[in-house]
Amino acid sequence: MTKLILRALAGETLPTPPVWMMRQAGRYLPEYRATRAQAGDFLSLCYTPDLAAEVTLQPIRRYGFDAAILFADILLICQALGADLWFETGEGPRLSTVTDAAGLAALKPAGAIHDTLAPVYETVRILSRDLPRETALIGFAGAPWTVATYMIAGRGTPDQGPAHALKSTDRATFTGLIDLITEATIIYLSEQVKAGAEVVKLFDSWAGSLKGQDFTDFAVKPTARIIAALKARHPGLPVIAFPREAGPGYIGFARATGADCVALDNSVTPEWAAEHVQKDGCVQGNLAPGHMVTGGEALVRETRRVVQAFSGGPHIFNLGHGITPDADPAHVQLMIDTIRNG
Ligand code: CP3
After folding, report:
1. Which residues pair with 88 in a beta bridge?
2. Atom 10, ligand 1: which residue's CA is nearest?
């Protein structure tokens, strides 16, 4: 029997939506914190296939999610392209920056990424062997704009100011970087699929700060190019796109990019998205992650609301963004029970 997530991605309306969570392997789980301590630091965890596979499997064992998402990070590809990358505890990622033509020229070619990313493919191979038969395996990458915002600023930024500045002051370097990341992402995701990923997801976490023509040029077009290249190499491969905070940009995004499913954040209501986005195909989302912290009646009520709003079409239940470290693991179980038992 075909896995539930693959059926939803193929456009089937299921009586109960399949469910997984962004960041489902993460710090809210004591077993994750233990394995991370064993690895020493976050990047070592990402690059040690046995341990990365172990943390990927932990939420599957605990909750029986319908999909596992490869444990890695969208910023590993920056390192594979030659940037320095480290994580400051309690703060987040730090990278060497790309701010001019010389910085772009100093990066490695897209074809060189396997030297660094080979352990990620090994993690995918272990998972495709060890996952339960009914669990789909999702591979992923960051979308070019979002990855570029980190490579240009050298860190997360509230408004992606440095990337927007480079886009207007040195267009050639900016578009050259977007093109390099696009090429590398095609190669990276294709290799994940060869290793056993059954679905791929593109995270464009900062898509919402691109407006007007910029949204078309740097959110829609690179995504469309990646999806077309992947589908040419792997016919029938389902792709989920997450243009976070795209707002009205969600309308028509699946058609414009060739994505099989659009993931929704919490800036749109499920009722609005059912009417304007789900009419074009499968959607994923969009319970607010805060309910995993607060639980209770509101969690049950809002979970039912999301299920109900999307019940007329193909839907994969998820949060609108990643689960946070302060979430209570019992609230995740309550969400799943509510989805599956009504
Ligand atoms: O979803 C999953 O469980 C799969 C693994 C995964 C991680 N990051 C693990 C991770 C995925 C898919 C990501 C995506 C990612 N990484 C995004 C896009 C999604 C989003 O959240 O918008 C972005 C922007 C990043 C970059 C990144 N990685 C940041 C900004 C941070 C620091 C903030 C934080 O949450 O700590 C990370 C670290 C990170 N990536 C952690 C995990 C489990 C926490 C690291 C730890 O254990 O200390």
Report:
1. 92
2. 73
Of the residues 23, 63, 66, 121, only one is catalytic, namely 23
Query: Which pLDDT tens digit goes with each residue over 181-209?
Result: 999 999 999 999 999 999 999 999 999 99
33 part of the active site: no
**Which residues constitute the domain of residue 152?**
4-341
Q: How many domains does the chain have?
A: 1
Checking phi first, is residue 251 left (phi over 0); if not, alpha (psi -120 to 50) or beta?
beta
CATH number for the domain spanning 114: value is: 3.20.20.210
Give the model's pLDDT for residue 342.
Answer: 83
DSSP E strand boundaries for the chain: 67-69, 85-88, 92-95, 136-142, 199-204, 239-243, 261-263, 282-287, 315-319
254-272 pLDDT, tens digit per residue, is 999 999 999 999 999 999 9
Which residue has its alpha carbon closest to ligand 1 atom 3? 23
